[in-house]
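Researcher: Re-running this chain for the archive, since the previous output was lost when a drive failed. Same request as before.
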Amino acid sequence: MMKIIMLNMILRGENEMNTRRGVILAFTLLGMIQLLGNSYFLSRFIKDRQNNNEAPSAASASKKNHNDETPTLDFAIIGFAKTGTTFLHDILANHSQVIMYDDEFWGDGEALRSWLNETVIVQKTNNSWLDDETKRKEEPQPATRRGIKCPRIVKETARLDQILVNTSRVIVGVRHPVLWFESLYNYRIWQKYQKKRFNRVPPIKYLHTNRTEWLGLSTGAARFDLYLKQLGKVPVSADELQKMTRMNKVDGVMNSTIHHEQHPMKVFLYTMEQIKDNNTQRLLHFQHTLQQFLDLDTPLLQDLASEEKVNVNDFEHSEIINICDEQYRDLRNTLVWQGKHASEWIRSKFMKSKDVIVSDVVFMNEVLERWGDDPCEKTVMNSSEVLRQSKK
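Model: Regenerated structure tokens:
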């Protein structure tokens, strides 16, 4: 279609251009388009970034609600799968100031607005706080933050504009790519037998690819940096965009508009190690940072470390894998190589953004640096117990 439009434009060109010259120039241009391949696709994203020099205004954000009476979404847990998102959802749902969507949210903007309107009714049941002067002095106003969990949205960044406004915040969890792959694969096996959701499970070798054709799982889908780049917190160069176009078979990569780096959305980045940290002081600091990020008046669950976590890796079946088995060494090598490069970008660029909040930068750097090591190699593990705990 683009070729036809451009051909017509040139053939109808300026009056002084004769037909013969127009035809020659048109076909020359078409040949250039054929040679350049994806350059138009690339330039479209570059132009999109250049044209978004200003963050969306509060006025434009309010238009997204289509109804000034509709409350806005305060935060969203947007990914990644198997990084403790369900655990965080449940912890936040039990907080007196938070109303969480009951399950994972898979709807669109209209479905979200419908739910947000329902939350007003829930909040009105707590209006006794408004009528009690003592409560207002001694207790925070209940149910003042509305949140959803939708780990898929980190791979569908265009949907962020459908559900978020300028003041919304997002929470993103990451994990060592090797352990993430094993956890998600075994979770799919659990779903197959416990939820009866599908029948076919491809051999591991078919998932050792950039293509993501089986339920969001492949080695390419472990490139967390590619998805984080699309949040627009760090300027992306033309060279990086070119590399991303070559990865567009990976689930969610380059399938939607890249947000401009000045988008006001704040991001809270965490790792699995932080929500199950045995270091009490560090864990409390993590909880406090998340509390501040969500603007909550009271602390999260104090004893976060002892809270029971659902671990489907305890599910036993012949198709469950132990990724440390020798037969998966090549798979691990790929994931470690990718992890090393992803870690370097996250540490050197993403975490440096003023819009990205991290609880403990030093600890986060230590954890991310280990992405360049194979967690199954005893030379980089303190003990087998550390590996067992990290796989939960």
